[in-house]
Amino acid sequence: LGWKFYDADDYHPLENKKKMEEGIPLNDEDRIPWLCILHDILRREDTSRQDTILACSALKKMYRRVLISGASAIETNQPQQPGENPALKILFVHLDGPKDIIAGRLGKRRGHFMPPELLRSQFDTLEPPSAPENFITVSLEKSLPEIVLEIESAILQG
Question: Can you state which reaction this protein catalyses (predicted)?
Fold first, then answer.
């Protein structure tokens, strides 16, 4: 697509990486500042009219709201005030699949700070996207070319 790509894992603070390396799951207090950094990146790219893809485990609805609206998403549930930055338009792609497929892929990863043992905590935290969120669900049981084609089709359809 020629879009800018970011891997959210590159933006975890050292403390988060150390926790995960030790097999300790992250909590909301660990994730919210990280998600705010990611929101700021997306906001910057949006301001410069740069289409962007962010690979990110936005496991909870609240996390996805932070990506869309920044810290204000957790500070208040009030409607947006005039003059505030409008919410970002984001299509979330929920890659869905059986735990054994995901565990197999995690097991093949080398040099990553998140051990496969934390997969259970991610499933425990997961709140799959639902209406009115802007999302598609793509099965990880498909081939990589099929997954990419499905995501590209959804993006191009707007």
Answer: D-gluconate + ATP = 6-phospho-D-gluconate + ADP + H(+)
Interatomic CA distance for residues 51 and 77, integer angstroms? 27
Segment 35-70, tens digit of pLDDT: 999 999 999 999 999 999 999 999 999 999 999 999
Whole-angstrom CA distances from 70 to 7, 22, 36, 156, 158 are 18, 29, 5, 26, 23
Superfamily of domain 4-157: P-loop containing nucleotide triphosphate hydrolases (3.40.50.300)
Which strand (E) or helix (H) includes residue 40? helix 28-47
Neighbours of 38 (CB within 10 A): 21
pTM for the full predicted model: 0.87
pLDDT digits (tens, 9 = 90+) for 5-14: 999 999 999 9
Buried b (16+ CB within 10 A) or exposed e, 131-158: eeeebbebeeeeeeeebeebbeeeeeee
The residue written with tokens 């995960």 in the block is 20
Q: Supply the DSSP symbol for 147.
A: H
